[in-house]
Amino acid sequence: MKGRFSIVATPIGNLADITYRAIQTLKDCDTIACEDTRVTSKLLARYDIKKPLLIFHAQSGKLSSERILQQLGEGLHVALVTDAGTPGISDPGNELVRIVRDRLHDAVTIETIPGASALTGALAIAGVDSHQFVFLGFLPHKKGRQTLFKEIAQEERAVVFYESPNRIMKALESLAQSLPVERKVVILREITKLHESVVEGSAQEVLEHFQKNSTQVRGEFVVVVAP
Hints:
Oligomer: single chain
Number of strands: 10
Strand content: 15-25%
CATH class of the largest domain: Alpha Beta
Radius of gyration: 19 Å
């Protein structure tokens, strides 16, 4: 029997942002591989889904991958989810998919169950020209970081990246130093959640906004630099 590997997008904040197909897939599968069992358990409880959970994340090691490969090789149906959004987008899920393709070849069917994504959600409401854009995921913490900001300043297309509350202020400082004043920056925070907000302006204006409103320096950030 052929194994089935479903890459399932889950909500990025609001638990109602999940597709019927995703719910059905999670109900039908044999096992769910997830980043954090506590986060995934909340989603499953919302939709009355009870399934065995396997841990898979960037630090879970080779053993977790081997367990998933074993189940797929036995013809089982494994669903892969991340804490929020689409597995494989700025997420080690893409490495797992590569391993499954290399090791199991035609013995498994790999399918995508599309849905919520902070990337597309942010671009939809940023109000910038996004016919072409560059997505950088999470920026490196140290090595090559300053060089990357110089490249962003020279990029003619829109640029999108994710940032954590611990580094958003440093990122904005670097953008303010690198970008011309006419280049718009849009900061989207806590998309789909209760305290969702959008701040736009020059990099310096956005930086000053968060300096004056330090209580807003929390949650998950998507940064969009207009072309």
